[in-house]
Write a structure and sequence with these properties.
By secondary structure, the protein is mainly alpha-helical. It is built from five helices and two strands. The chain has two domains: about 40 residues, no CATH class; about 60 residues. Strands 1-2 form a two-stranded antiparallel sheet. Helix 3 packs across helix 4. The longest helix is centred in the C-terminal third of the chain and has 31 residues. This is Protein lifeguard 1-like protein.
Length: about 140
């Protein structure tokens, strides 16, 4: 009994008319639709398909609303919402610098081989055209 009272109170607090996304009109099984010169009877499969389409429209609308609510009005069209969070930005920057460090380490390793190993120096002198290819 108590849960019914709380459910009713909850429903009363929720605004009754929430402006939502534009949706396709609902279909009812057995409904007759005019399509050109033909009359089509709505099936369960058609009803389920329409519900899936409306659900996808709703999900896209919710994502857009979240993005707009997260951003200032002037940046709403240009800025992707998730990157606004500091933790995500820091994680991205950390990954980029990690990749740059790995690339620099690999480059130093390869250059040091050709600077300090006599056989590698000799190989590059004999095959001078590889310098041009490497550039």
């Amino acid at each position: 009994m108590r849960s019914n009272d709380t459910d009713i109170e909850e429903l009363q607090r929720i605004p009754q008319h929430i402006q939502g996304p534009p949706q396709l009109p609902p279909l009812i099984k057995g409904q007759k639709l005019k399509s050109g010169p033909y009359t089509i009877t709505v099936t369960d499969e058609m009803v389920a398909q329409r519900e899936r389409e409306n659900l996808e429209l709703y999900k896209a609308w919710v994502r857009e609303q979240r993005r707009r609510n997260m951003l200032p009005e002037e940046d709403a069209d240009e800025y992707i919402g998730d990157f606004k969070e500091a933790a995500i930005r820091r994680s991205f920057i950390r990954k980029v610098f990690c990749l740059l460090t790995l690339q620099l380490t690999f480059t130093i390793f390869v250059i040091s081989i050709f600077m300090f190993v006599y056989e590698a120096q000799k190989f590059m002198i004999v095959h001078w055209y590889l310098w041009i290819v490497a550039m």
